[in-house]
Amino acid sequence: MNWLQIVWDVSPIIFKLGSFEIRWYGLCFALGFVIGYQIIAWAFKIEKKDSKDLDALLLTMILSIVLGARMGHYIFYEGQHFFEAPGAFIYDMLMPPYAGLASHGAAFGVLIGILLFKRKHPEYNYLWLTDRLVIVSALGGAFIRFGNFMNSEIVGKPTDVPWAVIFKQNFEFTQVPRHPSQLYESLSCLILFLVLIFLYNKWREKTPQGLLTGIFFLWVFVLRFLYEFTKENQVEFEDAMQWNMGQLLSIPAILIGLFFLYKAYQSAKQ
């Protein structure tokens, strides 16, 4: 019974003029940063932080997310090519266009980027920063996964669920009804954003530091581990694995989430 089945035949390109083109994924990626910046600016204003630090924080986050996601993709999914041609591997990893991005690399990149920002701005508490930035990261994740859906990429496995989607623009796999796994993750991130922004707005002063960060990592990566069962593997070597790379990388991220919740518990006791 496929009464809600969707035939998805939308081009990933919104506009093209010669070699210049605007794609849905790029638009969603940019919107995540633009709206996220406005939310962080609002948080800085109501908590009376120096708005002059916003630009430095934004630049740090953009570089951390893009470089972390790109390096994560190459190291975890294409690492075997390093031994074939190290110079070309590093060049392709660092130079645009960025066709492959790994969300786990982006998450770890942000944690490192906040450390670098704090070194130049020691007046900020590390957990204060992470608790605010995970709010916009959740929203950014919703935009990015929706961009993946618009691009007909990272598709799910064949299924007979009534909401299955046929991705006509994806020629890598057989065009049969599939799980819209991108929408599963996008909706989960949107719900997480609403939960985090509610907690921040209502109980900001009573929330122990690290709590929002811990919730973010557990929510995103426990669900990511489960959603991977509905998704096609991204690279061929994963076919021989019991758990794919996305699931293996989710395990340390879940442990990081538990660590932040422990820090929040300690903070609450104090």
Automatic annotation (TrEMBL):
InterPro entries: Lgt
PROSITE patterns linked: LGT (PS01311)
EC class: transferase
Keyword entries, A-Z: Cell inner membrane, Cell membrane, Membrane, Transferase, Transmembrane, Transmembrane helix
GO cellular component: plasma membrane
EC number(s) per entry: 2.5.1.145
Record keyword Transferase present: yes
Segments forming a coiled coil: none
Protein name: Phosphatidylglycerol--prolipoprotein diacylglyceryl transferase
Gene name for this UniProt entry: lgt
